[in-house]
Write a structure and sequence with these properties.
The protein is of the alpha+beta class. It has a single domain (about 5-155), classed as Gcn5-related N-acetyltransferase (GNAT) (Aminopeptidase, 3-Layer(aba) Sandwich), CATH 3.40.630. Helices cover about 40% and strands about 25% of the residues. The protein contains six helices and seven strands, in the order H-E-H-H-E-E-E-H-E-H-E-E-H. The protein has a seven-stranded mixed sheet with strand order 1-2-3-4-5-7-6, with helices on both faces. Strand 2 and strand 3 (about 110-120) form a beta hairpin. The protein starts with 5 loop residues before the first helix and ends with a helix.
Length: about 210
């Protein structure tokens, strides 16, 4: 629908954004006050990083972030357009819960993550780590951040992940308990993220044969 009838997709986004804000706006404000505080990452990952909602980020900086990533980064990551027009639409969409993780020392975007959310109570996770910050655990940290936001306001969270995308696959299963809803073509899994990090550690391994 997004490609064939973009005007209808835009209309659905506008309506969803409006209804989502009515239903979840107050709870979201409370959760974002926590995750965007300067002290949040000091106990989660590193005091060199902090979280900023994408609506508070310069649009050009986001476009530059995506432009600087290697082509292979987009093989499994195609959630939206990456041009300035698409980014500005996302920044206005209050149901698109997007965040960047910024490096304090360099004032640079180190990672990008989002819950694409719907007023009926579902959210879909996605993330990208800057090529220069990979291997530092930011992918897993951003998954935990998205869980904090989504579960904190009462959403059910889902994600599609390819087992061929090793880094994303590992960060998805290490940060979250989950159940496999469906095995999709092209070695992809459709997951529901479970709001219980400890109780289901062993379930994950059984569901996918040890990961």
């Amino acid at each position: 629908m997004r490609d064939q009838m973009p005007w209808l997709w835009d209309l659905v986004d506008i309506v969803n954004s409006f209804l989502f804000r009515i239903r979840y706006g107050d709870k979201l404000d409370l959760v974002e006050n926590v995750i965007c505080s300067k002290d949040y990452f000091k106990c989660k990952s590193s005091d060199n990083f902090y979280v900023v909602p994408i609506r508070s980020v310069n649009s050009d900086d986001l476009v530059e972030f995506f432009a600087c990533q290697p082509t292979e980064s987009f093989r499994f990551f195609k959630p939206h357009g990456f041009d300035i027009k698409s980014i500005k639409k996302l920044q206005k969409n209050r149901a698109f819960l997007g965040y960047v993780v910024k490096d304090i020392t360099k004032d640079k975007i180190a990672g990008y993550c989002f819950n694409r959310s719907f007023f009926h109570g579902k959210g879909f996770r996605g993330r990208m780590v800057d090529i220069n910050y990979r291997g530092k655990g930011l992918g897993t940290t951003m998954n935990l951040l998205l869980n904090k936001v989504g579960f904190g306001i009462g959403l059910r969270l889902f994600e599609t992940v390819s087992k061929d995308n090793v880094a994303s696959y590992r960060s998805a299963i290490s940060a979250s308990s989950f159940r496999v809803i469906e095995e999709l073509p092209h070695n992809e899994l459709y997951l529901e993220i479970i709001n219980d990090m400890k109780q289901n550690d062993n379930i994950n391994k059984n569901l996918i044969g040890g990961g």
